């Protein structure tokens, strides 16, 4: 079971850009698969307008409930971690200015 999970995560992390040039990569949808273990669901959409400029919109939600893996955390404080409740959502809008030579290349501000 562990090997199947690790294999699936590995395959999801591979980049599949075999016959794609920079003019075709205009829309990108991303998610953080490892955050699912902590009940944190994020979805991000990025649209490229020029070689160095793009706009990114993301939305995330954490369903209301107990703190994941709270029994594994040390409980040294006055707060009982097993009684902590989480929940909420977030939305962000970002403009990105890329510093690389190609479309969406490496570093952005």
Structural class comes to mainly beta
The DSSP helix count reads: 1
What general form does the structure show?
elongated
Number of strands: 4
> How many angstroms does the end-to-end distance come to?
40 Å
Largest sheet descriptor: 4 strands, antiparallel
Strand order of the largest sheet: 1-2-3-4
Q: What's the overall average pLDDT, rounded?
A: 79
What proportion strand?
35-45%
Order of helices and strands: HEEEE
What's the helical proportion of residues? 10-25%
Low-confidence segments, given as residue ranges, are none
What value does the Rg take, in angstroms? 19 Å
Q: Could you give a quick summary of the protein structure above?
A:
With 109 residues, this protein is mainly beta.
What does this molecule look like?
The chain is mostly beta strands and 109 residues long. Helices cover 11% and strands 36% of the residues. The chain is built from 1 helix and 4 strands, in the order αββββ. It has a 4-stranded antiparallel β-sheet, with no helix packed on it. The longest helix is centred in the first third of the chain and has 12 residues, at 2-13. The relative contact order is 0.18. The mean pLDDT is 79.
What are the main properties of this structure?
about 110 residues, mainly beta, 1 helix, about 10% helix, about 35% strand
Topology:
Layout lengths: L1 H12 L13 E4 L10 E8 L4 E14 L18 E13 L12
Antiparallel strand pairs: 1-2, 2-3, 3-4
